[in-house]
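Section 5.1 Outputs to date
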Amino acid sequence: MFQLGKLAHYSFDLILISIILAGIHRNTGLVFDSSHFSSVDFRRWFGNYLAFGEKCYDSTVSLLRMSGYFKQKNLIYDMVDRHASKFLKEQTGRDLDDLQKNQ
């Protein structure tokens, strides 16, 4: 018979896996293809499992945003800024901070 600790551990692991799958879905658009499962009932259960992971993912992201320990970065803006600074340094031999100080 399962001990309560093992049951809690396995449940927590299953929740983490569903959250990881939700994160993959949100960030890449990749979705687990459950059509390979022959049982319609299992496909329905698995769909509910993935939906639960999406809800947990949303709750976790919301909690992290409100915590104040995390800030959102714009990855595209940061990449463009990095490349622009590199280009400016190559063309002028100066950093953006140097140019702003002289103005």
